[in-house]
Amino acid sequence: MVNDRGQLYTIEGIAAGMIMLFTTYLVLGATSVYTPGDSHISDMQLEQTGTDALQMMNTPVNGTAESLLQQIVESNNGPLFNTIFLDYVNNKTGSRADNLHYTASVTYYDILNKTTVTLPPFAFNRNLSGVEHPVRVTELVIANKQFPGGSGYTPRAVLVEVLLWRD
Amino acid sequence: MAGLKDDAQWIVMMGFVVSFSLFFLAMVLNQSTVVGQTTAESVLDFPKNDIRDVRSVIIDAAILNSTGKISPGQTAVILNDTRAIEMSRKEAVISYQITPPNLPADSHTYVDIHYNNGVTAYNETWVSS
Predict the structure, then answer these.
(1) What is this structure's pTM?
(2) A1-10 long-range contacts, Cβ below 8 Å, gap at least 24?
């Protein structure tokens, strides 16, 4: 026996069901799984931190002095870079330091062979194993140093590249 | 609509109100994650630090040259290093033109800087003080 009592309840039931289903869909869509592709926000912050540290290191104390980064590149002083760089990037308010790792290398231009050459890392505090998700930060430095491939002893522009990651 | 009673309309209406508000809250929550993502993406895409870096080295070289600390040949080496490194490691094309002071009429050094990485182009004429 079919009668037409309670039509409004039926309509309400269907409407409520659809709204609940759609709300669930939206909520599940909002809390998605965090994949490496979704890490843009933390990447951006990490890149800013690293660039700031390199720029601080490449700022001389006055107009005639050499910057710290310039001295490090010229003398290939990996331990000094390690100390200063880690100090800058891991500094946080409070007693607990941040936990950033890096590997740094220098790239120069080989005039004779007309290629750019990236030297093996001159400083690192953790080997790059391949599972990290590092960001690259760079700084151009003018260094008084002789590199292979001609030009002799003259100021050269070299690129300090740092891969930086957090774990 | 025989047999339909119009009692309890308040309850039915409040049910609708509550479910619609839940619906809009979920929509807001859903959008909030996307907002931070696109902002961070556009910040990462914009080569602010690259441009500052290139600009700083070219102007430094021009200043070192005009103050006589390095020769024109050494300036050319620094600038060519910068151009080659930016091209191979940063996929950016840069070009530059340093115009020395034209004494006595004009005592300023002019440095034209052009930067283009395919997404962002930056052009500047820097004038020494």
Answers:
(1) 0.76
(2) A3/B2, A3/B3, A4/B1, A4/B2, A4/B3, A5/B2, A5/B3, A5/B4, A6/B3, A6/B4, A7/B1, A7/B4, A8/B1, A8/B4, A8/B12
